[in-house]
Design brief:
By secondary structure, the protein is mostly helical. It has helices at 2-14, 20-46, 51-73; strands at 78-82, 94-98. The chain has a two-stranded antiparallel sheet with strand order 1-2. It is elongated.
């Protein structure tokens, strides 16, 4: 079910839905934390590893790494413009604007 949700959110993000990226990050984070918990249970409680669970853990870890790389790669252009009323008297008023961007 979680993989379907991730696939659906990634598809929506690819078509330009801006707010989906944040939700995708939250879902992948929840999947990663669940994976860590299940790996702990397999290693220290059950003392047996399931091959399909390990494959799922690998896929989830890969998704997490890709999401982290996407977050780090976001570059937001910042332009700083000096305020019109500045008289060069040792102080300045600055305004800035950040252009909207779409994170996929």
């Amino acid at each position: 079910m979680a993989y379907f949700v991730v696939f659906s959110l990634a598809t929506l993000a690819a078509f330009g839905y801006r707010l989906v990226g944040n939700l995708l990050t939250l879902v992948v984070a929840a999947m990663f934390l669940t994976t860590l918990w299940l790996l702990y249970l397999q290693a220290f409680v059950i003392h047996h590893f399931c091959q399909f669970c390990l494959l799922s853990a690998l896929v989830t870890t890969t998704l997490t790494a890709e999401q982290l790389a996407a977050i780090v790669a976001v570059k937001v252009p910042l332009s700083v413009v000096q305020g019109a009323g500045n008289g060069h008297n040792g102080s300045a008023t600055w305004t800035y604007s950040v252009a909207e961007y779409t994170r996929i």
